[in-house]
Specification:
The complex is a heterodimer of chains A (294) and B (379). Chain A is built from 17 helices and two strands. With 294 residues, chain A is mostly helical. Among the domains of chain B are: 154 residues, P-loop containing nucleotide triphosphate hydrolases (Rossmann fold, 3-Layer(aba) Sandwich); 105 residues, Nucleic acid-binding proteins (OB fold (Dihydrolipoamide Acetyltransferase, E2P)), CATH 2.40.50.140. A six-stranded mixed beta sheet of chain B has the order 6-7-8-3-9-10, with helices on both faces. In chain B, strand 12 and strand 13 form a beta hairpin. The chains are: A mainly alpha (294), B alpha+beta (379).
């Protein structure tokens, strides 16, 4: 009886730990990835090679030729990346010190402050952009005031857009950096002091390198969505004179039924961003960091 | 506190006086007084929470004492930050920098030293304060790293990543990293506790050797009495934030000053007794000759007899009669419990005595260690 029970127990245990069962846990995610990411990407890829003439479809490279040859697209890419870069840089300059401060605060308050950082994300982004538009957008209260008194037009010179992007994406910079900072073993910091490094040197040689992976993911998490943003540039920025964001162009193409061209630009953008991400990840190695010694 | 004349002739490097430390109203150090001499291997020994690590951290500058002072080489260390002290630390979990390889970990101290002596600050120090500054060239740094890695037995490990090293190897890197700065005092915070027994014993020997060769003062924190006895020139036994006894390993082992020390250092038979007069003690209703003096007449004391100091003899030939209660083989010796009228004595002997045998116990006057009755008052 007892042997039977034992063997039954073992059997049940084994069955539970069978790789098939474990693998099946990944099925829902796999399904989502397949249906919502892989399939659309394939469709996108397919569309980018198709030209629609009337009701007939034709296989063509023309979409890519157009995408590459049109200087307007390149300008738009440049504008998108320029603002994304500025916003990312500002997010980093504000976010790192704040994350550092947050990691030093008494643990009791860290949770509350984190909650406050996340709080704006509970409100729909479009709504928040509309709110900003009322202040900084064309005819907004602050924009009007600055134009009338200082001849400083935040709507036309892009400042409003940068403020908007930073406002929306700052938490995505703070949180990954904060996460790596609190994971740093205090003994490493003490070891730095012990070996003669003053607080500045400890930060430069230990704290910052050890938090660098957080900085990189912060940069990625801010740069990618800002570079492809649609809503913020649409309302906070005079794109009709300053140049459209690449996301706006894609949106417009697709809305007007130019699926082929829109897809080609999207694929091109995706490749570009993939290359950038991979390059960024290359830096995320402890070994390469230690080379930067004097 | 007993210190030999030889030690007193040496130059004091650290003088700690009336050191106290409080955390949120909890007292962890209660007036520590201690002098550490040059070229000494000093061990802080005690159970966890006794304040040994706190004392070490105060010496290293990681923590400020609530009151009291640490004089280092004649200079008060009050408000001197950690990075300006001539001490280096080997941390309990080594704390090697994970983003640097072995070479860069070990060279860290020298590179920092260089960066301090370069630039405007260095220029001012050199030209105006007329200080002789050493700036290490790249090849000098390489040489130094090689030298200390050789010292810890890690030749050729320069390019190795920290994550790919065993605990013992990481330990050696940590020691090399601390030694490269040629500290006056090396602080070691339970550095062997994460190693297995065999490696630990090996490292004990090697650390002692390193200390002898380098001539650096080592302050070693441990809760392992065997480790302390093996390595130290001087042991500081601590408990509940107070120093219990300071002395050589022999002194601590043979002449424990109170019951706590006696119990903490090795196994002991501790018996309450009465000191009738100098050289005569009474316990369990019998009078015994001893070698201790200086207690007041009829003072209640603790008598310590080490298990290896008691001999088992035939019935009728010893001082105390009893029956062998249990016998356990311990490898080198047997541990025998002998039940007598008043208590059970633990005895270490190489002779076998069958359970239930009636025996007598005998010891010499030198085997009786008389200690003041230890009363611990909790605050």
């Amino acid at each position: 009886m007892s042997t039977f029970k034992k063997s039954l127990k073992r059997h049940v245990k084994l069955k539970f730990h069978k790789p098939d069962v474990v693998k099946s846990l990944a099925l829902p995610t796999l399904l989502v990835i397949l249906v919502l990411i892989v399939l659309p990407m394939l469709l996108l890829l397919g569309y980018s090679f198709i030209n629609k003439e009337g009701i007939a479809f034709k296989l063509t490279f023309n979409n890519y030729v157009v995408a590459f040859a049109t200087s307007y697209y390149w300008d738009s890419l440049f504008v998108s990346f320029k603002y994304a870069l500025i916003a990312t840089l500002i997010c980093l300059l504000i976010g790192y010190p704040f994350a550092y401060f947050l990691s030093k605060v008494h643990p009791r308050y860290q949770g509350i402050i984190l909650l406050l950082i996340n709080a704006p994300m509970w409100v729909n982004m479009t709504l928040r952009v509309f709110g900003l538009k009322a202040l900084l957008g064309n005819g907004g209260i602050i924009q009007q005031f600055l134009v009338e008194n200082f001849h400083f037009d935040v709507y036309n010179n892009g400042v409003a857009l940068v403020i908007g992007l930073v406002y929306i994406y700052l938490p995505f910079m703070i949180i990954p950096i904060y996460t790596t900072l609190i994971k740093i073993d205090p003994a490493h910091i003490e070891a730095g002091y012990d070996l003669g490094a003053n607080p500045f040197k400890v930060f430069q040689k230990i704290t910052f390198p050890l938090s660098f992976s957080g900085v990189l993911s912060g940069i990625t998490m801010v740069f990618l969505p800002t570079a492809t943003a649609i809503v913020a540039p649409h309302y906070l920025y005079n794109w009709s004179s300053g140049g459209q964001f690449i996301g706006q162009i894609i949106e417009a193409k697709v809305n007007k039924g130019y699926y082929g061209e829109g897809s080609a630009i999207s694929i091109f953008l995706a490749i570009l961003i993939t290359i950038m991400s991979l390059t960024a990840n290359k830096f995320d190695r402890y070994a390469t960091l230690s080379e930067g010694e004097e | 506190m007993s210190e030999t004349n030889e030690i007193q002739e040496r130059k004091a490097i650290i003088q700690i006086s009336d050191l106290t430390k409080e955390y949120d109203g909890q007292i962890v150090l209660k007036g520590i007084d201690l002098t550490i001499y040059e070229n000494e291997f000093v061990t802080f020994l005690g159970p966890s929470g006794c304040g040994k690590t706190t004392t070490l951290r105060i010496i290293g500058g990681f923590e400020e004492p609530t009151s009291g002072s640490v004089i280092f080489d004649g200079k008060d260390m009050h408000n001197v930050p950690c990075y300006e002290r001539a001490t280096n630390t080997v941390f309990q979990r080594y704390a090697l920098f994970p983003h640097l390889n072995v070479f860069d970990n070990v060279a860290f101290g020298l590179k920092i030293q260089n960066s301090k002596n370069k630039g405007i600050k260095g220029f001012i120090k050199q030209k105006i304060r007329k200080k002789d500054l050493k700036i290490f060239t790249k090849s000098e740094i390489e040489q130094e790293v090689k030298r200390v890695l050789h010292l810890v037995g890690l030749d050729g490990f320069e390019k190795r990543s920290i994550a790919k090293m065993s605990g013992g190897q990481q330990q050696r890197v940590a020691i090399a990293r601390a030694l490269i700065n040629k500290p006056r005092v090396l602080l070691l915070d339970e550095p062997l506790s994460a190693l297995d027994l065999k490696l630990r014993q090996e490292m004990q020997y090697e650390l002692k050797e390193m200390q002898r060769r380098t001539g650096i003062t080592f302050i070693f924190v441990t809760h392992d009495q065997e480790e302390a006895l093996t390595m130290s020139d001087k042991i500081v036994v601590m408990n509940k934030g107070e120093i219990q006894q300071v002395g050589t390993p022999e002194e601590i082992y043979n002449e424990p000053i109170n019951k706590f020390v006696a119990q903490f250092i090795g196994e002991s038979n501790i018996i309450e007794g009465k000191m009738l007069k100098d050289y005569l003690v009474e316990f369990d209703g019998k009078k015994y000759e001893c070698v201790d003096r200086g207690f007041s007449e009829n003072e209640i004391v603790d008598v310590v007899i080490r298990p290896e100091d008691i001999d088992i003899v035939e019935k009728g030939k010893g001082y105390i009669s009893g029956v062998v209660d249990s016998i356990i083989f311990k490898g080198v010796h047997f541990e025998i419990d002998v039940k007598t009228k008043d208590r059970i004595y633990t005895i270490h002997t190489t002779d076998y005595h069958k359970e239930g045998t009636e025996v007598d116990l005998i010891f010499t006057p030198e085997d009786l260690h008389i200690m003041e009755k230890w009363t611990y008052v909790d605050i």
